[in-house]
Design a protein that fits this description.
It is built from no helices and 10 strands. With 126 residues, the protein is mainly beta.
């Protein structure tokens, strides 16, 4: 069964950091772009960051630029999202998805991604 598994979420104070992991089960990630998305209650799923299969192209939402860093370790079949200087508005369930065409576009649409995991909750609160 092809599946992604997100982990690393939790409760953190404003200004804190978390590192999320996205690991594939049943297939190799090294041919695909991976995107991180998030969804807050009552809001649409929004793109946060993406990375191409070779790691050469990355993109970030304006709201997370200079605070979040996406990276990947294809040997470990894992993509990471390092989140620093977290803000309460970063609170959401974070998901990762696969872009089978290996595209990482500046404007991300969740319709271009599939094989979503169950998500990991990130809560930023004092």
């Amino acid at each position: 069964q092809l599946q992604l598994v997100e982990s690393g979420g939790g409760l953190v104070q404003p200004g804190g950091s978390l590192r999320l992991s996205c690991t594939a089960s049943g297939f190799a990630l090294d041919n695909y772009a991976i995107g991180w998305f998030r969804q807050a209650p009552g809001k649409e799923r929004e793109g946060v960051s993406c990375i191409t299969s070779n790691g050469w192209i990355t993109n970030y939402a304006d709201s997370v630029k200079d605070r979040f860093t996406i990276s990947r370790d294809n040997a470990k079949n894992t993509v990471y999202l390092q989140m620093n200087s977290l803000k309460p508005e970063d609170t959401a369930v974070y998901y990762c998805g696969v872009d089978s065409l290996d595209f990482c576009q500046a404007t991300m649409s969740h319709y271009d991604y599939n094989y979503w995991g169950q998500g990991t909750q990130v809560t930023v609160s004092s």
